[in-house]
Structure to design on (137 residues):
DNA sequence: CTTCTTACA
DNA sequence: TGTAAGTA
């Protein structure tokens, strides 16, 4: 069932700590379906023991980064880009790229905010029109 | 009973 | 993402 091959004798770090897909799903409150999906998208690459997936502490960290990126509104492709930059030519490029994506995200949110404000105003105008029309009758 | 793959919604 | 189906 829910057994971790090696566990919490050392709160963290042990690269020998392994998790099953259900361990991680439960810990992060997501479904195993999502975790498998992230693997399909190449964001995580768990090892296999036969046909079963085995996740390392490192995989767990990557999963955390994926979930954090999602909360910030980034796509899996963008998250993958950032994660894959870790360890490459230092973290210089990773930081630069992250900053770039943050700006892209910021602009997107600004546009959405404009659209929402416009829509709210449209509703106000329409509502008033309908209201006065109703009273006229 | 849990995990896996595949495929459709 | 969820879920159904058929396995291992």
């Amino acid at each position: 069932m829910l057994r971790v091959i090696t566990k919490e004798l050392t709160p963290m770090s042990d690269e020998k700590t392994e998790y099953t897909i259900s361990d991680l799903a439960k810990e992060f409150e997501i479904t195993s379906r999502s975790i498998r999906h992230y693997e399909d998208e190449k964001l995580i690459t768990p090892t296999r023991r036969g046909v079963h997936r085995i996740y390392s502490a490192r995989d767990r960290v990557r999963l955390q980064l994926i979930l954090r990126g999602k909360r910030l509104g980034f796509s899996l492709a963008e998250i993958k880009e950032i994660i894959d930059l870790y360890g490459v030519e230092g973290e210089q490029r990773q930081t630069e790229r992250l900053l770039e994506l943050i700006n892209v995200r910021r602009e997107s949110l600004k546009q959405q905010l404009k659209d929402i404000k416009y829509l709210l105003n449209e509703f106000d105008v329409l509502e008033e029109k309908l209201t006065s029309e109703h009273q006229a009758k």
